[in-house]
Structures are given as C-alpha cells and as structure tokens.
Amino acid sequence: MSSQNSNNISRNIWAVGRNYANHARELNNEIPTTPVFFLKSGNCLETNSVIHLPTWSAEVHYELELALWLDENLSYSHFTLALDLTARDAQNQAKAKGLPWTLAKSFKGSCPIAPWVNLQEIESLDSLNFELFINKRSVQRGQSQDMIFKPQELLEYAKNHFPITAHDILLTGTPEGVGALRSGDSLDAILQSEDREILTCHWDVI
Known about the structure:
CATH superfamily: Fumarylacetoacetase-like, C-terminal domain
Strand content: 35-45%
Number of domains: 1
CATH topology: Fumarylacetoacetate hydrolase, domain 2
Pfam family, one: FAA_hydrolase
Keywords: Metal-binding
Shape: globular
Distance between the termini: 31 Å
Largest sheet: 7 strands, mixed
Strand order of the largest sheet: 1-11-8-7-14-2-3
CATH class: Alpha Beta
CATH architecture: Alpha-Beta Complex
Radius of gyration: 16 Å
Organism: Pseudobdellovibrio exovorus JSS
Helix content: 10-25%
Oligomer: single chain
Number of strands: 17
Protein name: Fumarylacetoacetase-like C-terminal domain-containing protein
Order of helices and strands: EEHEEEEEEEHHEEEEHEEEE
GO molecular function, one term: acetylpyruvate hydrolase activity
Number of helices: 4
C-alpha cells in the first residue's frame, strides 16, 4: 500500500466542527448551514503511538476523524485517521466567556495521526467507514457519506475563505460517541472502504 510519511511538515490543520448531525446534537449545538472551521497548530501533530494527557485538564475527549492532505495543487492526495483531542472542560469555560478555543484544541500532542494512505487506493472518499475502540469496546462509528458537508464541499469552502497552502491538513469532523480519555486506556481505530480494510492504528494513553 503506498503511503506518505506523516512526519512531513504540515503548515496548518484546518479542522471542521459539527459536520455530523448526531454529534452536533449530543453536544447541544445547532446543526450548521455552512461549514464551521477552526485552526489547530501544525505542531499539534503527533505520530507517536502514545497519548500524553495534559496535567491541567480533567476532561480530555477523543474525537476520531477522517484527515485529508493537500498536495501542491491544493487537491486531496492522501487520507488517514486522526484524533482531534479536545480539553472539553477548557472548551466549555471558553464558550461560556465567549473566548477562543485555542487552549482546548491546540495543546501539545492534541492531534495524534496515523500514516497517510494514497487516495489512489480507493475509488471515492464518500464510501469510507471508520470506528474507534477503547479497551476493545466500540465507542465511535463514522461514515463519510453521513457528513453534512462532504470533503469536496469543505475544500471549496476553505479555498474561498482561507489562505490554505500545500501540505495543509483538513480534519473533516467527528461522529457521535465522543467521551473522556483516562490514563491506561488502549485505543484502536480501523478505516475501511466498502468493507475492505484500509488502515488500522493504535494509541496508548498515559
């Protein structure tokens, strides 16, 4: 399977919130009519299989997402799975005060990411299924066809509104089932295309 080294420098991580209706509902958020983007620092990327929880947060949530890599033509060329780790307590405090989410979303190691897979490995981004297991129990299931805004719509919106560049990463949003991580948790994720396994990855939480 051809893949791209996930250690390559990424300029920006453009993340999308509330792109699955059921996830928006579980956090008591309105379902958006236009994509909701926010930024994570490119330095948040973590290719190691160990997740270090920040000592200052008591509620770090996992959010499994389909990640997409932009090539020199600002088109998708690779895809993988990533975790958009979120300090939910810090996020809720920021929301209550009308403040930015940077602390909650962009802390060190807050974007663990699996190896990249060439887009040529699949027929379409619209037929991907992914699932997250914690301690061998399924906690999240997502299907790209259930996204409110499909990958190409997200890309066009980003091109029209933001200074995206080659090697940027786009996180496409998380499905329902988010929850808190605990030290000692063991995470396994799988990505499939039409019942064909494309990728598996593993993380340990300390």
